Amino acid sequence: MRSFLLSIAFFVASLAATFAQGPPLNGTPEQLFDAGLNAISGSAGSRDYLAAIEYFRRSAQKDYGPAQVALGYFYEHRPDRSRRSESGC
């Protein structure tokens, strides 16, 4: 009985580790877009703009319109640049 409970605990732990990794980078365009939104909003703990851009890029490559718009927005308004460096001052 003890070995059975240990094997179930190991199985549950392995499932938790699998789901904690986040969405796969080869998911559907909608899944990738949602993952990008989650990365921006910080729902996974902290905001990760680079991960969001990667998710949006992969979704946009699959011809998902909202991801293409989001990716265009990031290229237009890059959050890693300050306004001072854009104006040349």
Keywords summarizing the entry:
89 residues; 5 helices; 70% helix
Verbal overview:
The chain has 89 residues and is an all-alpha fold. The protein has a domain at 24-79. The protein has five helices and no strands. It has helices at 2-20, 29-41, 49-61, 65-76, 83-87. Helix 2 packs antiparallel against helix 3 (49-61). The longest helix has 19 residues, at 2-20. The protein is elongated and about 60 Å long.
User: How much strand?
Assistant: under 5%
Poorly predicted residue ranges = 15-20, 82-89
Q: How many helices in DSSP terms?
A: 5
Q: What is the helical fraction, as a range of percent?
A: 55-70%
Number of strands: 0
**Biggest beta-sheet profile:** none
Structural class: mainly alpha
CA-based gyration radius = 19 Å
